[in-house]
Backbone:
């Protein structure tokens, strides 16, 4: 634990480095208005360096934060505030949103990126834990039927059910009625698997096969991976000058599971994860993420960027967008 003076000097150094991207001199810290002499600042910087909070990248240069310095800064960061214009922009965006569920999440990721100037990602809530609102069966080819599930949050899941022999329209209708009885109002994946219920009794052969295929598809959808909506990747070239590192980060984002892992799925509340904490193993990478609530489920959103991210503002933007999205989705 640092004393108040060392903590104040570290805070000023981190924020000056975030602002300029250049190693910070003792003179720059004195000019921030701290109530201590130049000699005192230099002595305290030497102690902070010896303790691993800051480092000199070059012999004659100023100092920059280490991972430990960033982590201390984040752990003691006071809440930031957003300008009224930013809050109004976010509120107006969601008040005027009238698109489908997936499009809403995609546009939310783009909004988050536009405001923060970092690449952003929104992970859908998935079907696990959500309540089924509607279930439909639509014939598309002989022996193939499209199942459409709609959850309370507005999430839509589709699956093609393939049968050993075609089902006629009356059989599909009978199966759809049985599925509605079985699924509507049901919270998905609260049990290890869906089995036939009384509503399936009396279904003819093709209809019964269709019913079983539908239950299998529902189980698979509930256990499946979440959809990822990525926005603002064009910012990446301006954030990382090292092309080798940029290509490595791009390769991480190519895989949906990696993106979900970066956000720390299942972590409570707002999280800030830095290089060594991340599964990607990139030193100059930070991720700010938080949960959002949807009717019957929850998802996660966040932004990623270099370690010298503007954490104070970014955290507030991510939390504000999360709150507004949750209200829009009935969370």
Residues:
């Amino acid at each position: 634990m640092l004393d108040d003076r060392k903590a104040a000097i570290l805070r000023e150094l981190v924020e000056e480095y975030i602002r300029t991207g250049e190693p910070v001199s003792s003179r720059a810290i004195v000019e921030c208005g701290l109530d201590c002499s130049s000699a005192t600042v230099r002595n305290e910087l030497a102690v902070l360096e010896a303790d691993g909070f800051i480092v000199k990248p070059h012999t004659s240069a100023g100092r920059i934060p280490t991972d430990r310095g960033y982590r201390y800064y984040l752990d003691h960061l006071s809440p930031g505030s957003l300008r009224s214009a930013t809050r109004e922009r976010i509120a107006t965006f969601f008040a005027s949103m009238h698109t489908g569920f997936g499009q809403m999440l995609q546009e939310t990721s783009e909004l988050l990126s536009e405001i923060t100037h970092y690449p952003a990602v929104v992970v859908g809530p998935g079907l696990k834990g959500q309540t089924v609102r509607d279930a439909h069966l639509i014939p598309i080819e002989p022996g193939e039927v499209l199942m459409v599930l709609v959850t309370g949050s507005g999430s839509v899941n589709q699956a093609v059910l393939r049968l050993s022999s075609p089902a006629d329209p009356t059989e599909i209708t009978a199966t759809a009625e049985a599925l509605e009885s079985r699924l509507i109002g049901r919270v998905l994946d609260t049990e290890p698997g869906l089995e036939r219920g009384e509503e399936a009794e009396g279904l003819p052969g093709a209809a019964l096969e269709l019913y079983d295929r539908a239950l299998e598809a529902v189980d698979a959808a509930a256990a499946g991976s979440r959809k990822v909506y990525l926005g603002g990747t064009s910012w990446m070239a301006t954030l990382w000058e090292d092309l080798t590192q940029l290509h490595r980060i791009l390769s991480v984002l190519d895989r949906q599971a990696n993106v979900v892992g970066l956000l720390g799925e299942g972590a409570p509340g707002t999280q800030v994860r830095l290089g060594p904490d991340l599964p990607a193993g990139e030193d100059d990478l930070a991720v700010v993420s938080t949960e959002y609530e949807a009717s019957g489920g929850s998802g996660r959103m966040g932004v990623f960027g270099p370690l010298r991210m503007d954490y104070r503002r970014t955290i507030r933007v991510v939390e504000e967008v999360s709150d507004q999205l949750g209200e829009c989705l009935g969370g």
